[in-house]
């Protein structure tokens, strides 16, 4: 419990510093194009790194494709995200697809 | 435009975000409760972190008993994207008083950034009364949803909680495929996914996220530069 509070404190402080320092500095100077460019690739890279194990593994073990409820639900979810670009709609339909796959398998 | 008009405009434009945040943070509260996180810890994380992706990741990593150092390093790496948001928004707030800039930074979430930066890029002057109303409404929605979710978490059946757990991958998919989707960005995502999955198979845990994030971003940038060069020269 105590460690959970510490983790939250540090993550919150770090996230706020990312937001605040870059904003305050950004209001005074221009960032190098190269840095901005690299930063724009960090999000997709980390999101991919989060999704890979989440969708393909279970407790560090490979899940065969036809038994993989997560991956099967992810495919239509990706299509919804791609076409609508809407956060809430994607999350709600994703949960819907997962419910269907979960009860069918 | 009077101050009242600016506040009214901000409330009108923040409404879709308020509507999206509320159920999402209820889901967060419910999942946190189902994972045994006490209600005040989940509410505290919404007040103090205020970053949906980070908070969902935090629950799943607490559940799998990931080492605290790995949790903090991974989530901060994911949230490094906020540096990009701050750097982009900064110039638009150059005429603001200093303390107000520090206050504005609090509300710089993925979705708020997308809406307000589009507005500023279209030539609109961002005033404190517009921007801060916008930020506070979204923040309030996120916190109140968490309180509701944490409150009803105990009475939600475990099957519903299992199904709701797909909210996290769905959120990541929404952020990934709703954002920039050029080939270099997709390469960054695939490289990250491949390295993190490989690390998972080798039982290296959270290191895969950090390595995947850094190498994936670098790979994406390299491909991006390669593709731009012939056009420039």
TrEMBL record, chain A:
Taxonomy, superkingdom: Bacteria
Parts of the chain that traverse the membrane: 6-26, 38-57, 87-104
Keyword Transmembrane: yes
A Pfam family assignment: AzlD
Key words, A-Z: Membrane, Transmembrane, Transmembrane helix
Alphabetized InterPro entries for the sequence: Brnchd-chn_aa_trnsp_AzlD (IPR008407)
Designated name of the protein: AzlD domain-containing protein
Organism, scientific name: Paenibacillus lentus
TrEMBL record, chain B:
Membrane protein topology class: Multi-pass membrane protein
Top-rank taxon: Bacteria
GO cellular component, one term: plasma membrane
InterPro entries registered for this protein in UniProt: Brnchd-chn_aa_trnsp_permease (IPR011606)
Keywords per UniProt: Cell membrane, Membrane, Transmembrane, Transmembrane helix, Transport
Subcellular location: Cell membrane
Record-level GO BP terms: L-valine transmembrane transport
Membrane spanning residue stretches: 21-41, 53-78, 129-154, 160-178
Transmembrane helix listed as a keyword: yes
A Pfam family matched in the record: AzlC
Family, as annotated: Belongs to the AzlC family.
Record-given protein name: Branched-chain amino acid ABC transporter permease
């Amino acid at each position: 419990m105590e460690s959970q509070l510490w983790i939250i404190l540090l993550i919150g402080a770090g996230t706020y510093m990312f937001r605040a320092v870059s904003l305050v500095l950004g209001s005074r100077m221009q960032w190098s194009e190269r840095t901005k460019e690299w930063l724009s690739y960090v999000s997709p890279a980390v999101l991919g790194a989060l999704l890979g194990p989440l969708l393909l593994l279970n407790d560090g073990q490979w899940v065969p494709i036809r038994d993989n409820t997560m991956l099967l639900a992810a495919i239509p979810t990706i299509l919804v995200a791609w076409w609508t670009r809407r956060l809430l709609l994607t999350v709600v339909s994703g949960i819907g697809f997962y419910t269907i796959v979960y009860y069918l398998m | 435009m009077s101050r009242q008009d600016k506040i009214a405009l901000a409330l009108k434009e923040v409404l879709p975000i308020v509507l999206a945040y509320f159920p999402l943070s209820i889901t967060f509260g419910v999942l946190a409760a189902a994972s045994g996180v006490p209600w005040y810890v989940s509410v505290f994380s919404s007040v103090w972190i205020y970053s949906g992706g980070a908070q969902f990741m935090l629950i799943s990593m607490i559940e799998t008993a990931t080492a605290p150092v790995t949790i903090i390093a991974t989530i901060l790496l994911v949230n490094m994207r906020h540096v990009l948001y701050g750097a982009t928004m900064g110039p638009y707030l150059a005429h603001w008083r200093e303390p107000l800039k520090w206050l504005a930074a609090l509300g710089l979430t993925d979705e708020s950034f997308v809406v307000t930066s589009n507005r500023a890029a279209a030539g609109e002057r961002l005033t404190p009364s517009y921007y801060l109303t916008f930020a506070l409404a979204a923040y309030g929605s996120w916190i109140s949803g968490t309180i509701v979710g944490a409150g009803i978490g105990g009475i939600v059946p475990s099957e519903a909680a299992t199904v709701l757990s797909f909210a996290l991958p769905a959120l990541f998919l929404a952020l990934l495929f709703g954002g920039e989707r050029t080939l270099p960005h997709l390469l960054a995502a695939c490289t990250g996914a491949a390295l993190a999955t490989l690390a998972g198979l080798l039982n290296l845990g959270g290191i895969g996220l950090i390595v995947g994030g850094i190498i994936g971003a670098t790979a994406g940038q390299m491909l991006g530069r390669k593709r731009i060069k012939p056009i420039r020269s």
